[in-house]
Structures are given as structure tokens and as C-alpha cells.
Amino acid sequence: MSGLNAFDSALSRVRSAVAAELSDRRRMSQLESNAPLSEANERALAESLVWKELDLVARSRASKGDAAFDAATEELILERVIADLFGLGALEYLLADETIEDIFINGCDNVIVARSGGARERVGRIAESDAALVELLNTWASRLGRTERRFDTANPRLDLKLPGGFRLHAIMEVSPRPTVTIRCPRHTKVSLGDLVGLGSMDQHLADLLGAAVRARCNIIVAGGTGAGKTTLLRALIHEIPPEERLVTVEDTSELNLGMFPEAHPNVAELETRDANVEGKGEITMAQLTKECLRMSPDRVIVGEVRGAEALAMLKAMSQGNDGSMCTLHAESCRGVASRVRGYCAEAANQLPMPVIDGFYRTAVDVVVHLHKTLDRRRCISSLVQVTDEGTDGIKYNDLYVRDGNGRAQLASLPGGLLRERLVAAGLDMDRMAWLLDQQKAMASAAGGPR
After folding, report:
1. Measured at the alpha carbon of residue 77, what is the angle toward residues 63 and 114, in degrees to the nearest 5?
2. 114 vs 243: CA distance, rounded Å
3. Which CATH class for the 89-186 domain?
4. How far apart are CA 160 and CA 297, in angstroms?
5. Which residues pair with residue 248 across a beta bridge?
6. From the centroid of its chain, how far is CA 33?
7. pTM of the full structure
8. What kind of fold does domain 192-445 have according to CATH?
9. How far apart are CA 428 and CA 211, in angstroms?
10. Residue 51 host element (H or E)
């Protein structure tokens, strides 16, 4: 602990000792009574252990000729230890700040927050040392989430859902210092109308997307990191009738539909599980995506497709689970197919690309792409209809394309069966045609197509 001041050194010592003792007591309680200690009992035990350790600290300082901490300092150490072990420590004041959208921790004392609107600033240290930061992450990993997770040399990466729906990713060993990224979604219950108000799309595009959900179209939401994919997915889910059974599959729970039972009471939320210390018990996204098909879902919703689960998702979409949705990282609507081909290639059965393309054509109805504009605002940039014409490759109908400001602009009307389904779901196609004519007239008056 060289380089730490007296307070930080004492804090680190007390917290480590109390965390270790609590861990031992939990194991003993589990073995002896097959039941965990209640949180109230753990807190009471932790407080008594803190005072015991503070007494040892006082004796150690006295033996070295150092003055004892005053009562206020000891109370502060108690509060910090309890906050670190049962809350989120110094993170709590950052997570409570409604203007913060992302937190970047590049070592304990290099903490940067990104605020709504794009502003970034450096804030105070999050722990007294990198070792203390790792210790905190391990403590949170052991008690947060559906299953216990570990963060150590043998398991140097961690994905964790924090209270409030915030998503934490941490990694160590492969970087000079432990690195933590926390996404802080503030719109956990959001509608398409809300996104119109935020400037993410126009009302006529929101009308089309709402009709696509009601028409049980299979939708892929694509975009880069932080583009707003999960927020749009939540808004699309908001359009699903409450009587439908939804099954969600996520690596780390983020959609949190169970928080709003009045909107969708019949929800099953599935989350992956890491292997145990023996390397057994792992449950992957691909396994869960297959498993959910046995749960009689009306719709399957995959939080983020990024591996072999893509094939199971396409099968779900094309085998009776119409209206399913997922998100996926891609740089454009058309780039989604290439990503899906690559992900399907990871599956064990090694299907030929023409077969994968056939699955894609018959499964996917609409792909919508989001991005961040130059002023760092999230918006929809394009939307395509995937057509099922022919048997060679994948063909598209560009319904919305990116305009000069990076926002989605109406380019053509839906065709074929999709058009019929959207009209039946309440979309005013005549108004869309009028808007398209108006747009073309404005472009012509301005000197040609935009």
C-alpha cells in the first residue's frame, strides 16, 4: 500500500479484512444451515467487524507513535466500508447523476464521465488503489446478478448488471490497469413517441415502426456502440400488446422487462451463466436462444446477437415466432447480413452461405440502423425492407436513407406482402405516399435529388 495516505491505507486494510471474514461466514452459514445469512444480519455483522478492525488499526498506529484517528474519521471509514460492501461505494453518486450516460474507469484514479449532449469530464478517484478497485469489483460480482460471478486473474473479464439497470463491463490482466466501462441508460421505459420528442426519428417513421411491431414483423436493430440500439428496442417492445408472452435472451440482463409487469406480465428473462471454478456449468447465448423456443413464446427478443446464436435467432424468426427482434453491431443496414453470415459460420453445423442467405430472406422483414450524429445525438439513419425475391443473395428495398444531416429520410414505400401487413396494422400508406411526393418536389426545387 505504498503511496497511500493514512486514511486510504486504513480503509483498504479494514475493508479487505471485513470482506474476507464475511465471505468465510457466508460459506459457514451455507454449510451449517443450507441457508444464506440475511442482508440485515450481514450488515450488522459487518459493522461489528469494522469496529474490531478499527481497534486493531488504532493499536498499530499507537505502536508506531502515530496519533489515533478521531471519532469522525472512524465513522467515515465505517460508512465507506459498508457502502463498498453493500452498495456501490464511490460509484453511487455518479450513478445518481441523471446527466451521466457513460462512466469510463481506466485505473482507480483516472475516471471520466460522458454526459448527455456529449460533454466529457474527469472526476475524482473511484478507489484508493487499483488493487482496491479489483477487490470492489469482486465483491459486487459475488452478490449482484442472478448468478455469482468472479473477477480475478483466472477470470479477467466481468459483465454485470448493477442496481437500477446499469451495465458494467470490466477487464484486467490484458490491460496495464483494470478498466471498467459502465453504461447508464436513463430511458428504461420509453416509447416511440418519446424518441420522436428526443429527435431520434420523425413521427412518420415512428408510425411505420409501430405498425411493423403490430404486424408481427421480424426486426433487427443495428448500429455501433452507444448508438441507442437497446433504447430503440425497448420502445419497439412498448408497442407489443400486453397479453403476449415474451422471452428475452441476454448476455447481461439489460432490458429489464420484469420491472414493468403492468406492460407485459408474461415475460421470461433468460441470462447467460459463466462456467464455475471447475470449468463446468456455462450456459451460452446460443444455448439459451435454442432453449427459449421450448417455452411457447409469442415473440423472442435477443438483447444482442454476436455469435453462433444468430442461426438460432433466424430459425426462431422463420419458424412461427413472427414479431421477434434483436440488436446487432453493424455499420449499416446492408452490413447486417454480412455480420449474420459470419456469426452463423461459428455454429457447429457449418451451413453453406446460400442456405444462410435463404434463412435471412425468409426470416427478416425490416432492418433499422442507428448512429450518432456529429453533435453526438443518437438517431435513426436508415431503414430497409428485406425482400424474399429470388434465391440469389439478399435484396433490399431502401425505405429510409441517410440525409445530409445523418438522419433518416423517406426514400420509397414498402412493397409486396410487407405493404399489405403494415396497412392492415394501421399504417396510413396514402399519407406516406403524399410525404414522399412532397419530399421529391422539394428536392427537385432545390436542384435535383438529395
Report:
1. 135
2. 38
3. alpha beta
4. 26
5. 269, 301
6. 37
7. 0.75
8. Rossmann fold (3.40.50)
9. 10
10. helix 39-63
